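In the previous chapter we treated chains in isolation. Here, by contrast, the input contains five separate entities that must be folded as one system, with a combined length of 480 residues.
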Amino acid sequence: MKLARVTGTVTGTVKDIPFSAQKMLLVDIVDADGNVLEPAVVALDVCSAGTGDLVVVTMGSAARLPNQTSGIGTDATVIALVDELTVGGKSVYNAP
Amino acid sequence: MKLARVTGTVTGTVKDIPFSAQKMLLVDIVDADGNVLEPAVVALDVCSAGTGDLVVVTMGSAARLPNQTSGIGTDATVIALVDELTVGGKSVYNAP
Amino acid sequence: MKLARVTGTVTGTVKDIPFSAQKMLLVDIVDADGNVLEPAVVALDVCSAGTGDLVVVTMGSAARLPNQTSGIGTDATVIALVDELTVGGKSVYNAP
Amino acid sequence: MKLARVTGTVTGTVKDIPFSAQKMLLVDIVDADGNVLEPAVVALDVCSAGTGDLVVVTMGSAARLPNQTSGIGTDATVIALVDELTVGGKSVYNAP
Amino acid sequence: MKLARVTGTVTGTVKDIPFSAQKMLLVDIVDADGNVLEPAVVALDVCSAGTGDLVVVTMGSAARLPNQTSGIGTDATVIALVDELTVGGKSVYNAP
């Protein structure tokens, strides 16, 4: 999985019915310091994440393992809201 | 998934029968500002996208989850036409 | 999928029986202008492609969807010979 | 798979029940000399790895092959603790 | 698949039983001239490859298609020993 920062939302016209009920988030993949590693990934969400949240995104077929995204054509899903990051034994991030 | 701009089409000789009925689009993976992140991805399409459209492309096995691409050897499918992008609470793109 | 130029062939000793009957092509992933994006991908082939041909390569589990590669441990298969590329409404490549 | 150094842990709010019982590690993908190739991968763990350990991470659907992660939406799992690396016939790393 | 040069071996403590019987090779992904494209991939092996060998590595779920790696959590397996590379009709590599 990767750390990601939710930057916004994507509204679209989706003709595939199972996919169409899902909210699409725009996220940047980041490191533990918040530096952007890969911008503009579009992810589904099973955590009710909002813009600005630091999250964990799972990719590939793993994105369809949660019940809520099962059978839906997603390759990226927000699977966790980050509460705390600990690096080298020190807390480096705490959710506001 | 990734944002992508449709740049053109690929016409080819395909010997695998399920694949051969599909239209292949040429797309550039882009960020929310339209900067190209990865050029020249070939994708199938379940949204009737056209050249110039901003779309969402799903990759890997997810590309075969829509009914229209089920069982077809694609690793990239246009799953949505982007109507609006919102970044940091502001609308940064609206489909023409 | 990705555009690719066939550059050569790989001859090898393969102990996995289903794989061993397959011809391995060496291809460079390219953009619509022929610039190399990723060199030296080894792909199976269901299109009888030859050195110099511009082709479409499908990757990941999609590479095993064609009948000819079903059950074979490939992660890249040439699924189409490119006849024509159209970018921005203009033809930019025609197969010789 | 890739070599990785465990750098820390991620604590999060996970709403997908099978995933929620798992500990998330933060790891950097490294080469045999310890140079970071890709920072900040979030991985599950079937080896009781700790911060500072050199490990092997398996990615994609392989991350769900171990019994402990079966059916859980992970795309990266620590599958081995590295005891020794041998490069060109010489031992270049031994676990402390 | 990708060309790779076997550089060494990884010895580890593996708690997942099906995986634990496997030898892990350290390989560098290379191009046809031997230039390193991606260092330090850890792969299983169904070809009895040794350090220095030029091999073909298959990645993702394809790595589990050979009988010997079926059901094992690998995302990279050496599927062939390269005997000869031919580029542009000329032989550029022959196994010693």
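Chain E is about 5% helix and 55% strand. The domain at 2-94 of chain E is CATH 2.40.50.220 (OB fold (Dihydrolipoamide Acetyltransferase, E2P)). Compare these points with the single-chain example from earlier in the chapter.
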